[in-house]
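Reply to dn_fold:

You asked what the input looked like. This is it:
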Amino acid sequence: MDYGCQQVLVKDSGLVPILEYLCQQSNKVYNCALYYARQVYFKTKQVVSYASLCAEMTKTKNQHFKAMYVSSAQQTCRSVAEALSSFKSNLKLFSQGKLETKPSLPQYRKNGMFPVVYPKRWLKFQEGQVRVPLGNQVKAWFGIDSFWVQFPTNLRWEDIRELRILPRHGVFYLEWVYDRPSEPKALDSQKALAIDHGVNNWLACVSNLGHSFIVDGRKVKSLNQWYNKQVARLKTGKPQGFWSRQLDRITEKRNRRMRDAINKAARLVINYCLEHSIGKIIFGWNRGQKQGCDLGKVSNQNFVFIPTGRLKERIAELCRHYGIEFIEVDEAYSSQASFLDGDELPNYGEKPDGWQASGKRVKRGLYQTAKGWLVNADVNAAANLLKKVSRTLGLCLKELSRGVL
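and this is what came back:
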């Protein structure tokens, strides 16, 4: 069983002050619960549980906890508990040498608003609408104890798990979380698709069936450039930390466009795999590559701001949904080595003395092999990713030829 989400923009101006109040109280509950958890950790080195956080908020009669509907306040405490659990897991990985940077405790939130979550059991469905309770404090301040929202017609009430109120850049979304059963397909585990990511060529894809295609990234790059120029223009001559409603609007517009591009690019890849019964996706990825990149001011801006990590996660999510095996591979030296010349592909930090690629990049996007053949540089890198795992996974690469690249 998987989970899906559908967001609806709140357009009722009368609801906005109430939602703003709820999200502000949720943010304060988060900080109060986190303060208690941090103090316990500093004194005992123990990570408190979700139940302990809720009990402490109730015991101390926290005014922000009381201002919210009880189940929603508890869900905010659950978010703190999940953040602490993640910290504990990462700390264990660091002690085992599996994580390079020591994790730090979750930090306090400063942006003023945090999501509000309502489990389904506290919602009431009636004639295509859903009643959302608000609690006694809101009733005393705003004169209402609940509000009604339209339920999406393309969802089933039986599948709903919870409702989330999300504050984003000056607007509010209602996000419906629902059960989505998996749809495993009849796929061939000997068929694989390798993906090399970039900027202009967002995804260069090669399959061992002898096919290749590229997902264009220039549109996403253009949207990022537009956004960065607008932010720079609006912040010119303003003090450090300046922000405005106009910046909120263009940031939310940019984020919506990015989400749309991610979903469409991921769907293109998955549809290709389903159409050709491909059972494995090989994704080239170096952890921390954006934090340590040094490509120059312009190239860094293009590379870092393109949400390739979110695209990777979306592809992995769809793979789980359809039963496709998703494999993340170290992409070290895949862009330097020549696939057609049979170059060896060492792992990162394990390059042998005297190792040298047979081919070279002659210009942007063009790779020249030892025999003088010209192929697409990104597609050549994707083919090298297939080669890296072919022996381990038992993949046949006889269909990969010069024409494919």
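The CA atoms of residues 40 and 46 lie 7 Å apart.
Hope that clears it up.
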